[in-house]
């Protein structure tokens, strides 16, 4: 299907048509004071000028912008030299299109040509016969010769605004993507932990069903409590109010490890000094993920948690005496499956590091640098 022919770009609306009003005076002069060959030649030049005027509006998408610009300048120069200074005002059209140039070299070259086209006929006419009525030309000439700068500045601002809108749109998309990743990590770290415990409790019930009915009822009640906890976590996650703490996660870890028959020991003091809330929350969620992985994959009987603070960083170590990790454990798929990818992403937000090793089981070492603010700068701010 053929697209309809546009006289002028639709995005510009009625603006190109309004500017045609300025051709009224040249047309009146041509039909009033000229006849014969000069009249015919003038009509041809006016028609060519109109064609160039239309083509220049499509200059951004069509070749030949410079050709049509030079044609306009040539027509204005010919009119002004042969017909009169009234036709100098047609330079307002060309001045507008010169302001479209974004490259400085092209802009200044075209501007110099415009100055020559406008000033040479003016100087020539004044030297031939001075007329006080010519004084009215100068204010309009000054406006015309300065207008390309205004047009160029306006177009630059419009272009910057378009780039800013595009950048803002990209930022919004990045924020949406980051928010999706955050929600995915939170769902994995919160519900994954609780559901693992529910699964473990269900397996215990299956084994004790025919042996110890009282223990089965106790485990069933524990499953109910964990289910309610999962529901609460979902509500808190949706409202974005949940902030994990190391103290709270250590209690949860003790319950989960105990349910799996894994002994837990703690070394060091988990109450880090001067730790920002964001870093505290990230380390807490990393601890939760590590404990969940131990219960699900390690086949361990003992888990050691170590906390240490140096002058440079906060350190947390999680070690078990299970089957350890295989060579493939560092691959992307396994990392993603075990939640290690989300753990690394969280640590990256606070410039933290994570190292996973085989050490008579699995050894996970996490560290987050301590950022010390300059007191003088803080006081100055």
UniProtKB/TrEMBL annotation:
GO CC terms in record: membrane
Record flagged with keyword Methyltransferase: no
Transmembrane domains' residue ranges: 12-31, 37-53, 65-95, 107-127, 134-151
Pfam family, one: DesK_N
CDD domains for the chain: HATPase_UhpB-NarQ-NarX-like
Keywords recorded for this protein, A-Z: Kinase, Membrane, Transferase, Transmembrane, Transmembrane helix, Two-component regulatory system
Domain Signal transduction histidine kinase subgroup 3 dimerisation and phosphoacceptor, residue spans: 179-245
Organism placement in taxonomy: Bacteria, Bacillati, Bacillota, Bacilli, Bacillales
Reactions catalysed, as given in the entry: ATP + protein L-histidine = ADP + protein N-phospho-L-histidine
Domain DesK/YvfT N-terminal: 1-149
SUPFAM superfamilies cross-referenced by the UniProt entry: ATPase domain of HSP90 chaperone/DNA topoisomerase II/histidine kinase
Limits of the Histidine kinase/HSP90-like ATPase domain: 283-369
EC number: 2.7.13.3
Biological source species: Paenibacillus algicola
Any one GO molecular function term: protein dimerization activity
Stated name of the protein: histidine kinase
